[in-house]
Amino acid sequence: MKPVQIPSRYSVRAAIAASLCHGDAALLHTALQLGLSPRSLQRHLAGMGTSYSDMVAEVRLDTACYLLLESNERISDIALRLGYAGTSSFSRVFMRLTRMQPVIYRRQRTVQGNDKSRLVKEPHTGNPQKPSRLARNGKTSSQPSGSNVVRPRQGKKPF
């Protein structure tokens, strides 16, 4: 019996990302790309404490975050590129995983990229700064803090 080369987590993620680019993130396609049977890939992932569907969701989320922050691609195009049926299904999944709508997540780039991440009064200095658009419209929603924002790995593509 021929020994099977066990792929790393990174190579599985890269194979899934490549499959997503071709519009087919099916287990069979990814397993064949890695030179494994689908069942062997499932066993390998189970040994790593994850599943194929969890890995696909992880790659999709990382790729979505990367594209939302680093590209000007329309959200509907990102949704289709990642294999979602449409913008609404993508938005529901993104909202469930990040607790933030994709459009709001994308706006962070503009706000943080312009160094306007503090758009409310600073309590320590008392210096009023420009209030956020939501505050100017009379809504009480606050700017998302950096600690609960999901971001892709810094300086790297999502896979």
UniProtKB/TrEMBL annotation:
Basic and acidic residues compositional bias, start-end: 115-124
UniProt entry keywords in alphabetical sequence: DNA-binding, Transcription, Transcription regulation
Superkingdom of origin: Bacteria
Residues in HTH araC/xylS-type domain copies: 10-108
CC annotations in GO: cytosol
InterPro entries: Homeodomain-like_sf (IPR009057), HTH_AraC (IPR018060)
Annotated spans, Disordered: 109-159
GO molecular function, one term: DNA-binding transcription factor activity
Polar residues composition-biased segments: 138-148
Alphabetical list of Pfam families matching this protein: HTH_18 (PF12833)
Name by which UniProt lists this protein: HTH araC/xylS-type domain-containing protein
Native species: Bradyrhizobium japonicum
